[in-house]
Structures
1.
Amino acid sequence: MTKGAQLYEGKAKKVFETDDPELLIVSYKDDATAFNGLKKGTIEGKGVINNRMSNALMKLLERKGIPTHLVEELSDRDTLVKRVSIVPLEVIIRNIAAGSFSKRYGVVEGLEFRSPTIEFSYKNDALGDPLINEYHIVAIGLADQSEIYTIKKMAFAINEELKAFWASCGVILVDFKLEFGRLPDGSIVLADEISPDTCRLWDSKTKEKLDKDRFRRDLGGVEDAYREIMKRLEEHIAEAKK
Ligand code: UDP
């Protein structure tokens, strides 16, 4: 499958057309942004790690019965995916308080929740991805009620699978962001990526941050953290396949 015209360039990925109108190639960059694009930088090797990690986790989820956009990893940075129409929502699942949640509700970072939570943001850069509730989502036609039901069910199921996998790597899955897409037949699949850019991942013992917060908060050791989390994944993914 060869790359055709570039369809879109996002903050961390480029998307290309292919010979097949139903398939696209996603190409992962090393560019990093935070705070709605206000902070910009490069994390060397990130594109390779995010591509491989996202594909490995999506394969794991596929094996557990969760449909994704993944077709085939083509190279270090490029992956063939099903063309979907993205539901313009950021779906955030949390197991432990951190980031914007801690700030909004005045809750100490690290507080373990009694049960996982879900929230939605409207994917709209101009508006700064505002929080949105289910009634508003339906009211302005971003998704219908049955799609929201499916997305919630899939997101919590994904959380259980990923939490268990990361626990086997000695890593706590604090929170993460998912995006979903519609296939031509209207069915919902997991799309976008699952990587240290989109998840908070803490070492189980030391609680050291092994994710993009090292970049957001200028903690240093960003590249090392990405390499470390990828190493943990590679050491344990074979086990997860059994
Ligand atoms: N997240 C993301 N993209 C966004 C916003 C959040 O991938 O545009 C991820 C983030 O990495 C974290 C989770 O979603 O794992 C929850 O992020 P939060 O709402 O706490 O926002 P932040 O503190 O990162 O602004």
2.
Amino acid sequence: MNDTDSVDLPRRKLMLAGVGAAGAVVALAACGSSGAATGAGNPAGNSNNDAGAGPADGGDSSSGGSDGPAIKVSEIPSGGGMVFPGQNIVVTQPTAGNFKAFSATCTHQGCQVSKVQNGTIDCPCHGSQYSITDGSVKAGPAPRPLASKTVTVTGDTLTVS
Ligand code: FES
């Protein structure tokens, strides 16, 4: 009998320990789940941010499409213009509502023009400047005007081809 009791005692201890362990597991699981929920909250926030960047990427890809980039009319300042490096084009608005587009490839040595200011489209490499009105050379060493492109206005969107 004593042997049996001595065997039973360790079993009871084990069972108690098991219950304790199970309780600990439950407690850990509870902590784990709340921790996971918190952890999931941050990645969700990050993924929301990524999702926010996603449409911008999509916008880039759609506007960067070689089929004919769509550009908002409001992006182009009146009396100025904007270079779209990804599409290698320059879109200008010499006078209100009058849009022009040109290749952004400088006719001197092929650099990409980088900015539009003071009525000219400027090349950063050797200082050539082109008219925002017709792409003609305003300052050398460029030998020829920028190549003209066709601008189509549809509502508030410009398409260059
Ligand atoms: Fe543009 Fe020389 S490549 S000025």
